[in-house]
Design a protein that fits this description.
Blueprint: E1 7-10, E2 17-22, H1 30-43, E3 53-57, H2 62-67, H3 91-105, E4 108-115, E5 122-125, H4 130-138, E6 143-146, H5 148-153, H6 160-166, E7 170-178, H7 182-198, E8 212-221, E9 226-228, E10 236-238, E11 243-247, E12 252-254, E13 259-262, E14 273-280
Parallel strand pairs: 2-3, 2-4, 4-7, 5-6, 6-8
Antiparallel strand pairs: 1-3, 5-7, 8-14, 9-11, 10-13, 11-12, 13-14
Length: 281
C-alpha cells in the first residue's frame, strides 16, 4: 500500500495546527510543486514558523499522481464517510482513512485543487457560521460557492472539509485554477500565505480580495453520450434556457435560470460527474 508522504513543522511556541492538502486527485499537477517550494522555504528558514504546527501533504493520492489520472478506484474526495467494513476498502478509501488522522489533528484545514477547464478560481464554503465566515474572508479567493453539503448529504458522499467539520474543525476547499495554468500557482501562493497568517503560523497581514457569492444548485452526471455546446470555462455565466449539453439521442440539457457553470468534465464517462450549476445568492 502506497501512502502519502507527510511533512510536519512545529515551533516551541504553542499555537494552532494548520493542515494543507493537495493532489487529492492525481491529475492536479501544479499543487505539489507549490507545496514542495513551501517546504523548501521552511527547511532553509526563508519562511519562519512563528507558532503552532504546520502539516503539509503535497500529494494525497500518490498512486494516481504517478499515473497522471484523477483516481485509481474511487474519487478520493467522496469517500471520507465512516466505513462499516474496513477490511474491504478500495485504494482511495484506505487513503481517506490515513488522511483522517491529520484532519483530526488540525484546527484549520486547507484542501487545494485545480480543474480541467480554463476559468476563474473559487472556494467551496460548506458552512456559514461566524468562525467560518471569518476564515473564508481571510483567504485570497474572489468567488465563493456555497451549498455543497446540501447537495452531497443526500448521497452520503463526504469530502475532506465535510469530514473536518464533523470533527469540529474549520476548513475550505479551493479550486485554484486550471491544472497547467501559471496563474494557478499565483492564486495558490497568495491563498496559502493568507492561510498561514490567519492561523498564526507565520507573522504578517493578509491580502484581501473582493468576494462574490453563488450557491451550488445541482450536480449533473453524464447519463448518456453527448457533448457540451461550447468550451465552458470555470464559473462562466450561463443564462436561462441556454442549451448546455446536446446528447446523441437529440435530447438537450437546458439551464433553468441565470447562473454559473463549474467543474465541467468533457471527458466524463457514463455516470461520472459531468458538470455543476450554481446560482447567484
Amino acid at each position: 500500500m502506497q501512502y502519502p508522504k507527510v511533512y510536519e513543522f512545529e515551533w516551541k511556541k504553542a499555537g494552532k495546527t494548520a493542515v494543507i492538502f493537495w493532489a487529492i486527485h492525481g491529475n492536479e499537477i501544479c499543487g505539489p510543486q507549490v507545496l514542495e517550494k513551501l517546504i523548501q522555504d521552511i527547511q532553509c528558514r526563508k519562511i519562519i514558523i512563528e507558532s503552532g504546527k504546520l502539516i503539509i501533504v503535497p500529494i494525497c493520492n500518490p498512486k494516481a499522481y504517478q499515473a497522471d489520472v484523477r483516481q485509481i478506484e474511487d474519487n478520493l474526495n467522496r469517500v471520507f464517510y465512516d466505513k462499516k467494513d474496513k477490511n474491504n476498502l478500495s485504494y482511495e478509501e484506505k487513503i481517506a482513512e490515513f488522511l483522517k488522522q491529520y484532519i483530526d489533528a488540525g484546527d484549520y484545514i486547507l484542501d487545494l485543487h485545480s480543474f480541467h477547464a480554463q476559468g476563474n478560481h473559487y472556494i467551496f464554503q460548506d458552512f456559514t457560521d461566524e468562525k467560518t465566515n471569518e476564515f473564508i474572508s481571510a483567504l485570497w479567493v474572489k468567488n465563493i460557492v456555497q451549498g455543497w453539503p446540501e447537495l452531497y448529504e443526500a448521497w452520503e458522499e463526504l469530502d475532506t472539509i465535510w469530514y473536518a467539520y464533523s470533527q469540529g474543525k474549520i476548513g475550505a476547499l479551493i479550486e485554484c485554477g486550471s491544472h497547467r495554468d501559471p496563474e494557478c500557482f499565483d492564486i495558490a501562493n497568495k491563498t496559502i500565505q493568507n492561510f498561514l497568517i490567519f492561523s498564526e503560523i507565520i507573522y504578517g497581514k493578509w491580502e484581501k480580495n473582493i468576494q462574490n457569492i453563488t450557491k451550488i444548485d445541482s450536480m449533473i452526471r453524464k447519463e448518456k453520450p453527448g457533448n457540451f455546446t461550447k468550451n465552458y470555462i470555470e464559473m462562466q455565466e450561463i443564462t436561462a434556457w441556454e442549451v448546455i449539453v446536446k446528447y446523441d439521442d437529440w435530447e438537450e440539457f437546458i439551464a433553468q435560470k441565470d447562473g454559473n457553470i463549474l467543474l465541467t468534465n468533457k471527458d466524463a464517462k457514463i455516470w461520472q460527474e459531468h458538470f455543476y450549476i450554481a446560482y447567484k445568492k
